[in-house]
């Protein structure tokens, strides 16, 4: 469960990116986050994943109030969250396999179990057979799939995706949406941001619309 209670995020020297937002996303729900560029979508996802801290208010994730946790406790919360970043954050000096292995290395998983999980995640996104490839050789869509494999390899209960379909053609974008739907169907809470609402329309899910850090009218 994700709960925002009167949350404001003010970046140093900047305007309020999120302005007093309160809402709840239930466990196992799939929700879209819509809004113009700069509306606060990425910031909201960063607050859920603990990458950014609220300036005011409380962000509660899986029963933990992130606003009150010490920085040293955040990694434990993050173990239950997978993030597909807007800027990919792929390591181009490592193979596809090593990129997906990264979250398991950080958690300190047993090597044999890790290898099994990396293969399963790559299989799920259709990249099995490309383990040894350098990510630079992957197409844009394949790189997005690599990011999804890396986000789900540790089987998080919450999956966050920041504009995962940006720069993809419509057919590929729909494919990616189907992938997220399949993670939702096996129980994950899924939050996906996009500024193209036409992709969300077919899924009949709740859409949280933001404008300038507040709920859009
Ligand atoms: N690290 C930062 N420092 C200062 N201001 C920031 C920072 N990150 C975001 N902002 C500002 O906060 C506001 C919200 O940005 P955010 O990236 O959350 O919006 P967004 O809806 O995700 O936009 P986009 O669709 O372009 O990614 C913008 O005005 C942005 O300039």
UniProtKB/TrEMBL annotation:
The keyword Transmembrane helix does not apply. PROSITE patterns: ABC_TRANSPORTER_1, ABC_TRANSPORTER_2. Keywords: Amino-acid transport, ATP-binding, Cell cycle, Cell division, Cell membrane, Membrane, Nucleotide-binding, Translocase, Transport. It is found in: Cell inner membrane; Cell membrane. Residues 2-216 form the ABC transporter domain. GO terms for cellular component: plasma membrane. The keyword Methyltransferase does not apply. Part of the ABC transporter FtsEX involved in cellular division. Important for assembly or stability of the septal ring. Homodimer. Forms a membrane-associated complex with FtsX. This is Cell division ATP-binding protein FtsE. It comes from Microvirgula aerodenitrificans. The lineage of its organism: Bacteria, Pseudomonadati, Pseudomonadota, Betaproteobacteria, Neisseriales. The gene is ftsE.
